[in-house]
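Appendix B. One record, verbatim.
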Amino acid sequence: QVQLVESGGGLVQAGGSLRLSCAASGNIFRINSMAWYRQSAGKQRELVATITNAGSTNYADSVKGRFTISRDNAKKTVYLQMNSLKPEDTAVYSCNADVFRINTGYVNVWGQGTQVTVSS
């Protein structure tokens, strides 16, 4: 079994900052790409940011310059530093990872999500 557990969500005023964490646990040989997605009420899930095992990153246009994705491979953890938050950033944020397990190969895993609410 592989699990992703997010933390760090909450309520913040517009212009504020939050840092999300997502820790992987279980029978993991290697983690390739990790990503953060978000979904707000009535909208489709949106890719926010991705990071490869080598540290290459990619961001949605809506968060470029404000959000930073990073990872600690030794801790099997991915982070999302969110600055200059806007009310439209309000959503449930979920992490996703491509995990390689020796006996079963690659599996795509989702976390349970953490709520981020930005008040105006």
